[in-house]
C-alpha cells in the first residue's frame, strides 16, 4: 500500500486504496480512522490460516519488530524481479517517483501489474517514502529509450483517469512484476509490504499483502 498530507489518498499502490481522514475532511465527509501505516520488512513468524485470519511477525526495515494481523480471506500478491524491457506500451504499471527537471518524474521503483489487476489504484497521489515522493498507477501509452541521462533508462508517458505523467525510469531502479498469489509464499524470511491500520494495542491490521519471490524485496 497513507499518511499525513503526503499520503492522503493511498493505500497499497499498487493495491490497497483507502481514503484518509485528511482527504475525507477535504471532501466534506466525517473524519475517518487514522491514516494507514506502511509496513515494509521481513517475516519472522506465521500463525493462523487464511480462512480464520493470520498473525505475522515482521521485523521492519528499521529493525523494530511488528505484529501484522491479516483479516480472514485476505489476498496475496507476489512480487518478482523483471527487466526494464518488460515495461511496454499498454502495460499497466505503478511507479513511486521523485520530482525531476521540467516536470518529469524520476522513478524510484516500477511494478508491472498483470491484466487481471489492471485499474488497481489508478491515479496519481502522494506516497510515504519521502516528503516529495508520489505514486502513479496508470497505462503506459508511450516508451522512449533514454531520457534524462541521454544514455540509459526509459521515459514513459503514463496515463490515468484525469491526467498523465512523464516518468523517467533509470536502469538501476527495482522493477518487479505483480501477480495474484496465495499464503504459501508467506514463510519465515520472506520480504513483505502492505499498508495497515494501527490498533490500540499497537498491532497492525491489513487485508492484502505483497510478498517478494525468490528472496526479492517488494520495492514500494
From TrEMBL:
The keyword Signal applies. Keywords: Signal. Residues 129-148 are annotated as: Disordered. This is DUF5666 domain-containing protein. Residues 1-24 form the signal peptide. Residues 129-139 have a biased composition (Polar residues).
Amino acid at each position: 500500500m497513507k499518511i499525513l498530507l503526503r499520503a492522503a489518498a493511498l493505500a497499497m499502490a499498487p493495491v490497497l486504496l483507502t481514503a484518509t481522514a485528511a482527504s475525507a475532511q477535504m471532501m466534506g465527509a466525517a473524519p475517518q480512522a487514522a491514516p494507514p501505516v506502511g509496513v515494509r520488512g521481513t517475516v519472522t513468524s506465521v500463525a493462523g490460516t487464511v480462512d480464520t485470519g493470520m498473525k505475522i511477525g515482521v521485523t521492519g526495515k528499521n529493525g523494530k519488530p511488528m505484529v501484522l494481523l491479516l483479516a480472514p480471506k485476505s489476498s496475496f500478491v507476489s512480487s518478482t524481479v523483471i527487466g526494464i524491457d518488460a515495461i511496454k506500451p499498454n502495460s499497466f504499471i505503478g511507479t513511486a517517483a521523485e520530482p525531476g527537471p521540467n516536470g518529469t518524474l524520476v522513478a524510484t521503483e516500477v511494478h508491472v501489474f498483470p491484466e487481471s489487476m489492471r485499474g488497481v489504484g489508478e491515479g496519481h497521489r502522494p506516497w510515504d517514502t519521502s516528503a516529495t515522493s508520489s505514486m502513479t498507477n496508470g497505462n503506459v501509452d508511450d516508451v522512449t529509450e533514454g531520457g534524462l541521462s541521454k544514455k540509459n533508462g526509459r521515459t514513459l508517458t503514463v496515463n490515468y483517469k484525469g491526467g498523465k505523467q512523464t516518468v523517467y525510469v533509470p536502469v538501476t531502479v527495482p522493477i518487479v512484476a505483480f501477480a495474484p498469489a496465495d499464503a504459501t509464499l508467506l514463510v519465515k524470511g520472506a520480504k513483505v509490504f502492505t499498508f495497515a491500520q494501527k490498533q490500540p494495542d499497537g498491532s497492525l491490521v491489513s487485508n492484502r499483502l505483497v510478498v517478494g519471490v525468490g528472496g526479492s524485496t517488494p520495492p514500494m
